[in-house]
Amino acid sequence: MSARYGGWIYLFCFSLVSGLAQQNRNMTLDVVVTDKAGRPVPGLEQKDFALLDNKQSQKIVSFQAAAGGAAAADSPVEVIVLVDTVNTEFTNVAIERREIEKFLGRNGGALAQPVSMIFYSDSGATGTLSSRDGNAVIADLNQKQLGLRTIGRSQGLSGGMERMQMSLSVLQKLADHEASMPGRKLVVWISPGWPFLISGMDQVLESQKQKQWFFDSIVALSDGFRRARITLYNIDPLGTADALSLRATDYKQFLKPVKKADQADIGDLALQVLASQSGGRVLNSSNDLAGEIATCAADANSYYVLSFEGLPGDGPNEYHALEIKIDKPGLTVRTRSGYYAQPER
Questions:
Q1: 328 assigned to some structural domain
Q2: Worst-scoring range by mean pLDDT, 150-154, 238-242, 248-252, 285-289?
Q3: What pLDDT band is residue 155 in, cutting at 50, 70 and 90?
Q4: How far is Cα 281 from Cα 339, in angstroms, rounded to an integer?
Q5: Is 179 part of any domain?
Q6: What is the model's pLDDT at position 68?
Q7: 293 vs 99, 110, 132, 176, 289, CA distance in Å?
Q8: What is the pTM of this model?
């Protein structure tokens, strides 16, 4: 077991962008293949995969299959469960904590992969150790003094924007931190998401400067996730109570890639959108949070790691769509939907 987090996220900086992203043309993709019942499919070979970059066939430079939770020593996999107290009511946080302990305590606490936790509040974040011993993670969690949200949910547009900016800053800092760590990370963010479609927020991006900020933030997060090998998952703790709300489905209208600043919309940075585009999942219709966390973590039990040489961009931040095809019927592939390429230097 190890202590993975050491106060890396206690101060918030609302600017996600620090200049043009540097392009690393060697790309690594973590790919999950499932059957019609949603079960991961092991045993595939490199010849079963075809990779398209902007609809152009690309050579797969390297291929690795990870099954049964086994990953190479130099390419480990970890599950990071993040509890969001900024965008979630306090009463729901208490329920989440019980469900997380239920997940950690399965099989006597024997976890298939190392699991760590982060509790995120507007005063900072508290992380636990990373361990395959769920009981040890629970014990460490119980010793933490967890901060509570002080931002009111009734602050309307201003409060909604503040919570959104804080949450995006946390995501970027997490990506920056994890980029220095080897291997794949499954980040399970438990939250109904930030209020990106509340009344009046459609007026936020009226200026070109605002649209440019959002576009630059989209690029920065996409690049950060790719470098850190983060797959993001979103679990809505409201479960069936939120299943019929607009929030459960409205994010889907923002899943198309944003190719330039003029196309940027506030919904493009929704938690559900970021999760979908990273190759993760959005789960919002069950009260079994422990089961949903286990469903996300199961993606680490059988997956494939592909690498290829990304194409250069004709200009800065040129969006490239990625597609992986499987030469077998009835299978579904999940991986990141694309990347932002930079010109050759």
A1: no
A2: 150-154
A3: low
A4: 18
A5: yes
A6: 62
A7: 9, 15, 15, 24, 6
A8: 0.90
